[in-house]
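Q: Got a minute? One more chain.
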Amino acid sequence: MPDAVHIPSAPALRPGAEAARPLRIAMFVNEFPALSETFVLNQITGLLDLGHDVTIFANNPRSDPSAHPDVMRYGLYGRVCYRDMPEDKFIRVFSVPGIFARRRVHRDMLLRALDVRRYRREASSLNMLYWADRLVDHEPFDIIHCHFGIIGRQAAFFRETGALRGKLVVTFHGVDMSACLDREPDLYRHLFSVGDLFLPISNRWRQRLLEHGADPARTLVHRMGIDPLRFPPTDRKPVGEDVWRVLTIGRMVEKKGIEYGMRAVAQLVGRGLPLRYDIVGDGPLRPQLEALARETGIADHVVFHGWRLQREVADLMQTSDVLLAPSVTDVHGDQEGIPVTIMEAMATGLPVVSTKHSGIPELVVEGRTGFLAPERDAAALAECLHTLLRSPTLRRELGFEARKKVLAEYNIEMLNRQLEAKYRSLVDRA
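A: Always. Here it is, folded:
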């Protein structure tokens, strides 16, 4: 088991001191680029800005309609290595002899990647073999940073076979600690024994990891963050004299709770309140949500924007009165981490109505930066919205405190420097 690790805060460079060498960092994710995962992108670009060499490893690209501008601005397509495993199982198996022929000198390592008794489905699916084929050409990394526990578990296996080398750091977000551990409580037993540093994104999830066997000394909260400069505050003026604007942003899946946001808005419209409800995002539940808008009689009050670029989302935040983030635990037990969209909205000075869900109460402080309702309680959400909408003064006060909190705790530049210090500590110990 790796030793306990002390993580210092980011050190300031002394006058005349020599800058530390850039780190070679492998960033493992499931899909890249993923438009909804700006938290990963912010970390990658921040590390590049700090001068480090980052290579991105992803199982697959995501079929989003567009990519974040930073993907092109930083040339990230040139830094991505995909697994390239054929979807067709016959072709996948048929290609195995070619891998062995091409990698003769690595035969023993490839055979370890096929050890079904040890790696079970990861080996039988040939996932480990195809990854070994992609990883073997890379020199050792200083840091192997994985986003989501499932990806970290795989990387621990890759490292064990010898296909991957470096200190293993894993960020845990939400579903990887909720639904995944509910189904398989010992899922990360091996990872916890060999990983070097575990970074849950909230105190709530750190406690969850400790309950499942993570070493407290190697399990530290490291939050995701945003660039506040991209979400400046504004003096909000109503678009129309009497129209209040409520905004929701997120994938149209159950855990985002958009159904309950719509039902809350429907209650307020039913009381005669003049509302416009802007919903940004897309996903499998969009047809049902569009039908719900018609069923509840608010179709004329709801605008489904689909996915929008970051600057377009920022513009919507500037012209809205409240962000509504009605997150819930879905039927499979999947929960959020702390949604980045809440951080972005708060940075603009937008007060938030959300739920007592996952790590959200660590960001949205009840009565100080917004209001929180129980999950799936449309009536409570409606009351929170009504309280905020009828008081411009309260919205300004909560919005001011919201921005202060994001600047103090969720500024990505500050967080990336703290992450760099964590990396350095691991590398120095090696």
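A: Residues 201 and 223 are 4 Å apart (CA to CA).
Q: Perfect, thanks.
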